[in-house]
Amino acid sequence: MAPQISPSILSADFARLAEEAKAVEGADWLHVDVMDNHFVPNLTLGVPVVESLARATDTPLDCHLMIEDPDRWAPQYVEAGAGSVTFHVEAATAPVRLAREIRAKGARASMALRPATPIEPYEDLLPELDMLLIMTVEPGFGGQAFLDIMLPKIRRTRELIGKHGLELWLQVDGGVSASTIEQCADAGADVFVAGSAVYGASDPAEAVRALRKQAEEATSRASWLHDH
Ligand SMILES: O=C(CO)[C@@H](O)[C@H](O)COP(=O)(O)O
Ligand SMILES: [Fe+2]
C-alpha cells in the first residue's frame, strides 16, 4: 500500500479546529486524539467535537481513543462519523468483539499497543483488524521524542502481517518527523501520524506532502532491497 499521512490535531489550535482541519486537506486522514485523563494523564475532546469535525472536513477521521472502557465508547465514535477507530488493547475487555462491532458499524477497526505492550500475544487477533497502531512514544502528549527502541517491534509486526498474508495497515504514532519517518517506513510502517511535525510547520499542507514523499522514497528503497 502507498504510504499514508495522518496529521494529528493534538498539535493544532483547538479554538480553530475547523480551519486547522482544512489546512491539511490533501492528507489521507485527520488523526484525532481522544484522551480521558484516566488511561493517559491528559484530557482532550469527545464525541460531540468529533461529530462537528466530521461535518467540517472531507478528510476521513482517524480517531485514536486513549480512554478507559473503549468497549463502551468506541462504537459512538463510529456513529459520530469516524472512518477509522483505534482502541488500546490494554484498555479493552473484549478486543475481538469490539473490533467486530466497529467494522459492523461501518468503520475501519484498529488496535493500538503502548510501547511496553508486545505484539506476539495478539498474533491471532490480526485478521480481525484493519490497522494496528504501534505507539512510538508513551501516549498522552504531542511533541515527545521518537522511541527508536520500537523499530524492532515494527519490523516483527510487518513480518507477522506478511506471514498471515493480511492487508492490515501498520500505523506509527509519536515523534514521527522528517528525521524519523524514513526509519519507520524502512521497518514496515505504512500509515504515519505526525502532530508537531505538521502543525508546527509554517505550511502544514506542504509538511504533509514532504513527509509523504520521504515515506514513499524510503518504502520503495526498502522493497527494492527486499526483492533483490
Ligand atoms: O497519540 C498521540 C500522543 O499520545 C499522538 O497522536 C501525538 O499527537 C503525536 O504528536 P507528535 O509526537 O507527532 O508531536
Ligand atoms: Fe495519536
Number of strands: 8
Poorly predicted ranges (pLDDT <50, ≥5 residues)?
none
Summed up, the domain count is: 1
CATH topology: TIM Barrel
Helix-strand pattern: EHEHEHEHEEHEHEHH
Small-molecule components bound: 5-O-phosphono-D-xylulose, fe (ii) ion
Largest sheet: 8 strands, parallel
Task: Give the strand order of the largest sheet, numbering strands 1, 2, ... along the chain.
Answer: 1-8-7-6-5-4-3-2
Q: Quick check: average pLDDT?
A: 97
Number of helices: 8
- CATH superfamily grouping: Aldolase class I
Strand content: 15-25%
**Spatial separation of the terminal alpha carbons:** 19 Å
Amount of helix: 25-40%
Instruction: Specify Rg, calculated over alpha carbons.
Output: 16 Å
Name of the CATH class: Alpha Beta
At CATH level 2, the architecture is: Alpha-Beta Barrel
Shape: globular
The class by helix and strand makeup works out as: alpha/beta
Function: Catalyzes the reversible epimerization of D-ribulose 5-phosphate to D-xylulose 5-phosphate.
Pathway: Carbohydrate degradation
GO molecular function: D-ribulose-phosphate 3-epimerase activity
InterPro entries: Aldolase_TIM, Ribul_P_3_epim, Ribul_P_3_epim-like, RibuloseP-bd_barrel
Provide a quick synopsis of the model:
It catalyses: D-ribulose 5-phosphate = D-xylulose 5-phosphate. The protein has 228 residues and is α/β, with parallel strands linked by helices.
Using brief descriptors, characterize the structure shown.
alpha/beta, 228 residues, globular, binds fe (ii) ion, 37% helix, 8 strands, single chain
